[in-house]
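pasting for the record
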Amino acid sequence: MADDDRDFIERANSVAEKLHGEPMASEEIAKNFALYGVQKRAAALERFDIELQGEIDSSQHSLRRRVQLMALRKKMGGIHEALRKARR
């Protein structure tokens, strides 16, 4: 994975396309995230946070993608916290 320069959403879409023939929407990514166990969710969030710490350029596409990633990270963090409170 170290050589993979795709972001979280791009990697998830690649896997979805291989399995289902089409990319996954952010909502679907978040739903699937809820199916992970607590340790796998925590590890995924840590990797996501590391990815978000990377530098971005000021192109419109890059900024738009960063906003999408941050929104997905916030949603996934909320799901993780809600499931932890429910002891799941």
